[in-house]
Amino acid sequence: MHRSLAIGRLRQRAGGALLGASGSTLFIFLASFMLALMLSACGGGSGGGNGSGSDGAAAIATQTGSQADTGTPVVSISATPTAATVGQVVTLSWSVSNPTATGCTASGAWSGALDNSGSRTVTAGAAGTAYYTVTCGGVSKTTSVVVSSPPPSPTVNLTLAPASITTAQTSVLSWSSANASGCTAGGAWSGAKATSGSVSIASTVAGNFVYTLSCAGDGGTVNASAALSVTAPLSNSTAIVVDSGPTGVNGAINIPYVSVTVCRPGTTTCQTIDHVLLDTGSYGLRLLAPLDAALNLPAVKTPSGADAGTCGKFISGYTWGAVRRADVKMADETAPGISIQVIGDSGANYAATPSSCSSAGNNLGTLAALGAKGVLGVGLFKQDCGESCARSAVAGAYYACTGNGCTASSMALGSQVSNPVASFAVNNNGVLLVLPAVGASGLTSVSGTLIFGVNTQANNTIAGETLFTTNSGGDFSTIYKGKTYGASFIDSGSNGYFFNDSTIRTCSGGDFYCPASTLSLSATNAAADGSASGVVNFNVANLVQLASTISAAQVGGTAGTGNYFDWGLPFFYGRRVFVVMEGASVNGKTGPLWAY
Amino acid sequence: MRRAFLLMLLLSLLQGALAYAALGSSPSNFGATPVRQAARSLAAAGADSTAVYTISQSTLDSGTVVREYVNNDGKVFAVSWNGPTLPDLRTLLGDKFAVLTNAAAKRPKAGHSQLALAQQDVVIVSGGHMRAYAGHAWIPAALPAGFDTSVIE
After folding, report:
1. Contact at 8 Å (CB) between A326 and A305?
2. For residue B8, is pLDDT > 60?
């Protein structure tokens, strides 16, 4: 390439000299021109040029031979520019002195009949040397254009990973280019950029942002763009309130409430229900009927195809009702199409409460008895019953309900009333309850936070808390005053500390403790696998001496001769308490476990 | 289908047979279910008593263990339960079931509590949570002489 280019230049100079030469010096120039042509041929210049070079030599020879004849045409041709890139337009200009009547013809890299003078534009073809010859009356003249390949076009690649983030997240904007000497940013960023690189992108405001990059090189300029979607962060937390309860509840004490949204599966027909009891001692959502008629939640069937009824059993009583399917939503989390219980469902097939359900004690199927509009069970397990109900028709759990009444039925795991958290797309391995401290005199209301997931977000990471594994039933051990209670548990649904201490006075006619003054007590909890233990200091105030407006208090009651210590809601005050569900692993331990 | 129906029918009959005796009554219908039942006789450790009582134990489908303590007169004087489901307390407690249901009415405020009642006629302790229930009850007047209630499992 370099070689033929040099020769081309040489020939160009020779040609120019020839046109301007006078007769006496002409032969000297001709001799040098011939030499140049021979060098070109010997040098093996580009293939297309050799033949044309011969033509050029022939034309010059012809012209030289005709020098003595006046009236012989004198042909000249020039190209502008004489060096071009592939595809570039070149202007050829030619003229003839002493033209003949036969006119002129083009040959070589162009063709056709030509006027005696003129100019024409041609497009540079393949890389190499293009020879343009004009022949007039047997006299030829050739000019050449060196055609080189154009510089390669630059390319650029601009990517955002991920292309969609929240205001709490970052994305990485990466770019790379080829055949570019420099890049310039535009759109959502600016300034000169290297030809490749990456930057971390974060935005505190939601919106769509377009990042552009323009990279230039010898071969031109190229642009690329990438779009970033920034949304407000998805919330994995919802408010807890401990207050006097919804209208219809007579003075709640230590009942944590949350709001829950239920939707007809797959639709936007939803209802948000406030004052649902947040219960770490049960599993699954149970809501008091009636729900909005528009919801029309579909009935869940038993294996026999009957409408499924279910009985929720609590120490304080039972909830009887239908199993229905709903999308359960809290914060930005959704449990799609899970089984919930509709307590007191008006469906005809559920009209009669089976005696094996009511045998649990009190009917909790009213607002006054339940103290809430429903129960949200977010404890250690995924289903309210589990494998035993999937295997057999466990008495008092699930029922096949028809017009003839309800009979005990098995229930597939996936159809059982289930902990919504387990069905969330993310943050589905447990929950964290955060409640502020409550002193001995109690508070009229407190506000806290229910956070979904454990160690899945910055706001639910176990920090200094200790992990307490439980047995398969969800219990660990508590040592109180030298006695070990092997079936102890943590239960936000219990409205006090329940433990056995016959030295503490009970309230008149009741099972709550009414000490003369607030007691400062302590007990030691021990993980079921023996891996951890820790002292818990707690206070027990006199329930009946609290102001009537108090809804959150450090109160307790007797467990009688029960083999348990129930760490009820007062335990949660001033703590972060993690529920890690069965099968979930955190910090090297597998649930069910508690961390606090 | 027919086979499945028959199987279900059989299971439900078996379940019906798994009833237990009420506190304070004789365990007459209890002996019909030998498969999941075990009985043992123990002597109460009384100072001047040779009273013997029997523990009948049955395991429900769910895995919950129910024990009945039967005195020399053939009366159930104590019951206990422990396991993932709550047994039929109406049947188990007999006429003392009403004591259980009346307890909530005595509480001054709404909320869910564990249950521990110690009345002259009956002691009832019921505790735990979903998938882990435990409790026991006894009739003080019907205890064999020298019977220590702390041995109730």
Report:
1. no
2. no
Report residue B78's pLDDT band, with 50, 70 and 90 as the boundaries. Answer: very high
Residues in chain B within 8 Å Cβ distance of A592: none
Decide if B113 and A498 are in contact by the 8 Å CB cutoff: yes
Which chain A residue shows the shortest CA-CA distance from B132?
A: A473
Beta-bridged to residue A89, according to DSSP, are: A123
Inform me whether the pLDDT recorded for A29 exceeds 60: no
Whether residues A278 and A409 share a domain: the answer is: yes
What's the number of domains chain A is made of? 4
The C-alpha atoms of residue A228 and residue A324 are separated, in whole angstroms, by 40
What pLDDT shows up at residue A63? Answer: 44
Q: Where are the domains of chain B?
A: 2-144
Last residue of a domain, one of A204, A231, A258: A231
Size of interface A-B (CB pairs under 8 A): 201
User: Which positions 22-51 of B are in contact with A (Cβ < 8 Å)?
Assistant: none
CATH code for position A143: 2.60.40.1930
Token pair in block for residue A234: 């998805």
- pLDDT for A273-309, tens place per residue? 999 999 999 999 999 999 999 999 999 999 999 999 9
Q: Which residue of A has its CA nearest to B18?
A: A395
Q: How far is CA A513 from CA A73, A185, A485, A499, in A?
A: 130, 71, 19, 10
Residue A474 to residue B11, Cβ atoms within 8 A: no
**Range A360-384 average pLDDT:** 97
Average per-residue pLDDT in chain A?
A: 89
The pLDDT of residue A567 is: 98
| pLDDT of B152 over the 50 cut | yes
A453 inside 8 A of chain B by CB: no
Q: Which helix (H) or strand (E) holds B9?
A: helix B2-17
A172: domain CATH number is 2.60.40.10
What is the per-residue pLDDT for A15? 39
Range of the domain at A452: 430-595
Our CA angle for A463, A467, A468, nearest 5°, is 155
* pLDDT of res. B13: 35
The 3-state DSSP class for residue A437 equals coil
Write the DSSP assignment of A13-64 as a string of letters: HHHHHHHH--GGGHHHHHHHHHHHHHHHHHTT--HHHHHHHHHHHHHHHHHH
Q: Report CA torsion sign: A445, A446, A451, A454.
A: negative
Same domain, A98 and A182: no
| Each residue's pLDDT tens digit, A90-123 | 999 999 888 888 888 999 999 999 888 899 999 9
Q: What pTM was estimated for this model as a whole?
A: 0.72
B89 φ, ψ to 5°?
-70, -25
Choose the final residue of a domain: A215, A231, A247.
A231
| One domain, residues A517 and A417 | no
Query: Is the domain of A407 the same as that of A434?
Result: no
What b/e readout covers A94-105, taking b as 16+ CB neighbours within 10 angstroms? bbbebbeeeebe
Contacts of residue B149 in chain A, CB cutoff 8 Å? 561
Q: Which two tokens stand for residue A274?
A: 């406030």
- Closest residue by Cα to residue A271 from A247, A295, A298: A295
Within this chain, do residues A243 and A376 fall inside the same structural domain, yes or no?
yes
d(CA A115, CA A22): 27
> From the list A385, A487, A494, which residue is nearest B113 (CB)?
A494
My answer on whether A568 and A468 are in the same domain is yes
Element (H, E) at A319: strand A317-330
Same domain assignment for residues A82 and A185: no
Q: Please say whether the beta carbons of A396 and A357 come within 8 A.
A: yes
What the block records as the tokens of A125 is 């073809």
B118 at interface of A, judged by CB pairs closer than 8 A: yes
Measure the N-to-C terminal CA separation of chain A; round to a whole number of Å: 78
Is A580 in the same domain as A468? yes
